[in-house]
Amino acid sequence: MHAVGIVAAAGSGLRLGAELPKALVPLGGRPLVCWAVESLRAGGVDEVVVAVPAPQRAAFTAVLPGDVHVVLGGDTRTASVRAALAAARGHAGDQGRTAVLVHDAARPLTPPELVARVLAALAAGARAVVPVLPVVDTTVRVDDDGVVAADVPRAALRRVQTPQGFDRATLVEAYGRAHGAAAEFTDDASVVRAAGIPVHTVAGDERAAKITVAHDLRMAELQVLGEEDR
Ligand code: CTP
Ligand code: MG
Asked: How far is CA 4 from its chain centroid?
């Protein structure tokens, strides 16, 4: 199965608060986006499309490998993935099924084994698959005043990571149906599920954690240092 990777890297990283767009922020001396591209490739992805913020296009092409396809992202993650998906369409000309893996640039330390698990589930026939982790904290619902209104049984709850894998035709069709102001999703599996397609799960990995705030970047730096020491 031919596999295309899409890396959503067009966000600004407001919560991280760096001077650069988050995907260009260095980790162990290398921009986050480069780590994300590399883990997709190491896990078995054949070609990669990266959605970048328009003002920094040149900065992204300067740091990314030459065979990575760079496209301009949009105002929302959904718009960025949509743009990359349109660019990915013409690429794989082979007759068989094509897999698309959609990944966050903000998950730099995703182990290649996780990417491989997602690809394996697609090869086994799933049309959509997401890596998930259990919820370990007690989880509650609060009212408008922040007062606890209910316990939420956590046994059936999962935290969803990326890369999320799809049969390409399925993802293209789901994005085709998802339009209008209400069509903003925080991930791609939601787009597919909105189209009525079952989304399967594989085991996620804590190392694929998303870098959102400054603390997350410090944790990732420690992880990189720990691996260098080994
Ligand atoms: N993303 C994107 N296009 C957007 C917004 C987000 O491609 N218009 C990407 C980000 O670059 C990131 C991923 O989606 O790799 C996950 O989003 P998030 O962690 O929210 O990143 P940012 O939107 O950049 O950060 P923030 O919300 O703190 O501004
Ligand atoms: Mg965001």
From this structure: 13
| Residue type for position 198 | P
Residue 153 has pLDDT above 60, yes or no: yes
Give the 3-state secondary structure of residue 153. Answer: coil
Q: Are 168 and 100 in contact (CB under 8 A)?
A: yes
CA of 36 to the centre of ligand 1 (A): 14
Q: Ligand 1, residues 19, 64, 104, 187: which to mutate, most atoms within 8 A of Cβ?
A: 104
pTM of the model: 0.95
Residue pair 208/109 in contact (Cβ under 8 Å)? The answer is yes
Cα 12 to averaged position of ligand 1 atoms, centre (Å): 6
Q: Are strands 164-167 and 128-134 parallel, antiparallel or unpaired?
A: antiparallel
Span 87-119, pLDDT tens digits: 986 554 556 789 999 999 999 999 999 999 999
Q: Using alpha carbons only, give the angle 122, 104, 60 rounded to the nearest 5 degrees.
A: 120
Instruction: Specify the pLDDT at position 94.
Output: 55
Which DSSP category does 104 fall into?
E
Q: 13 alpha carbon to ligand 2 midpoint, in Å?
A: 7
